[in-house]
Every structure is written in C-alpha cells, then in structure tokens.
Amino acid sequence: DADIAAHRIFNDIQEGKRSEEDAKSINQTLIALKRQAEDTRSRYWKEYGIDIGNLKSFDLIIASDEKTTEEITEIIRSRYRAWLQGS
C-alpha cells in the first residue's frame, strides 16, 4: 500500500536512515513515491515490454505491509524450496 510505504519512508527520513532523500511531509513523500513507481513502470515497459502493474506476470507476490524482513525472507525461501522440489 502506497500510504503505508510513504509513512515508513517519511519516518526513515525523519530518523536520518535515508539521508539521500528529503521530504517535508508524508503527502510529499507519497507524491514522490507515486512518481517513482510510475517512472519505474514506464521504464520496464519501454526496456523489457513488461507491465509490472500486471501482477499475473509474477510467480510470487508478498504483501509486506505487516511483515518483518525475516518473515518475508522465510516466505521466499520456503517457496523457493518448494519450487526446487517441483511443487
């Protein structure tokens, strides 16, 4: 969710964890995030012919809004192991 991402990014900026970025508000962060997402989507379409907004292109989609890095890593590892076994 873009709103959750904007809050996380804005908090990281305020805490000095993202010194390469600057934002005065969560709304400003959200606008920048949406602009970046659209630029990325356009670039992937132009360079690879892939619409990254079409989730049918992906084998694994993880809703990471409420998950820790460790939980996400375990999901990926588990699915990868299953893939290796032919499941």
Question: What are the salient characteristics of this protein?
Answer:
single chain, mainly alpha, 2 domains, 0% strand, flat
Structural commentary:
The chain has helices at 2-14, 26-48, 69-84. With 87 residues, the chain is mainly α. It has 2 domains: 1-53; 54-87. Helix 1 packs across helix 2. The protein starts with a helix and ends with a helix.
Question: Secondary-structure map with pairings?
Answer:
Elements: H1 2-14, H2 26-48, H3 69-84
Helix pairs in contact: 1-2
What count of structural domains? 2
General form: flat
Terminal-residue CA separation: 30 Å
Q: Beta-sheet strand percentage?
A: under 5%
The run of helices and strands is: HHH
Q: What composes the largest sheet?
A: none
Instruction: Return the structural class.
Output: mainly alpha
Q: Supply the number of helical segments.
A: 3
Task: Write down how many β-strands occur, each being a DSSP E stretch of 2 or more residues.
Answer: 0
Return Rg in Å.
16 Å
Mean pLDDT across all amino acids: 87
Q: Percent helix among the residues?
A: 55-70%
Give unreliable regions as ranges.
none
In short:
This protein is an all-alpha fold and 87 residues long. The protein is built from 3 helices and no strands.
